[in-house]
Give the backbone structure.
Amino acid sequence: QVDLVESGGGLVQPGASLRLSCAVSGSFSNYVIAWFRQPPGKEREFVGAIRWSSGGTVYNQFAKGRFTITRDMDKNTIYLQIWSLLPDDAAVYYCAAGLIDYYGDYDLPSYYAYWGQGTQVTVSS
């Protein structure tokens, strides 16, 4: 069982930077922890993921260079750092946990068995 709680969302201005947090509890040493986002009326899309044990990361193409996923092993927390926020970044951001599956598609929601409640990011001037 893995529990995840997102935090850090809110109303920010375009150009601002934001760091989202995902506090993880349970047994997850062999898990991939991912960030997804879902704008209103659109499909949930993969942002990136981190392998908890190694810290290795992968990103969706749109996220490369402006999004960074890190982990703090002492705090059992992963972070999503977003630089220079754009209006198109507005969405509910979710973190999710899935047991490592070498042959699985980690960029799909179905890969992940556990989900947080989401945190809303609004980008507006």
Summary: The chain has a mean pLDDT of 96. The two ends are 40 Å apart (CA to CA). The longest strand covers residues 18-26.
